[in-house]
Write a structure and sequence with these properties.
Layout lengths: L3 H33 L4 E8 L4 E10 L6 E5 L3 E2 L5 E9 L8 E10 L8 E7 L3 E7 L8
Parallel strand pairs: 5-7
Antiparallel strand pairs: 1-2, 2-6, 3-5, 4-5, 7-8
Length: 143
Amino acid sequence: MRTRTDLIHSRQRMLLVPGARVSVLLLALAGLVSRMTLADNFSDVHYDARGDQLVVTLLYRGTNPDHSFSVKWGQCKVGKHGGHEIEANVLDSQWQDAAKRNFRKTAHFSLAELTCRPAKLTLRTAPRFYYSLEIPARSTRKP
């Protein structure tokens, strides 16, 4: 037969277990977040009308500052509200480089060949970082 003291200790252990589960879960989430900060991320993105280009400043980690970045364009689609939408992935040439030090690089991506305009652009980089901005219609003025 269980005594009152046994029941109290039993309840305390049951309360402790969920708390331990929460602690383990929080540690796991902290590990996930720290891994995500090691991936390429956007510091700044803007459209440069003079050069008809995207200017993208990326934060990344690696062993060297010589990473280069390119864009892989998705399909032009008609959005929910009738305007054009397009997605693009920013690819790191050294995506498997060991994450030793922090680096920052500004890349310029020409939009001269982009026919999906005006459009809402969603720019992505691994694993789940994205940035959205509007790309205006091509300028008709000649230099």
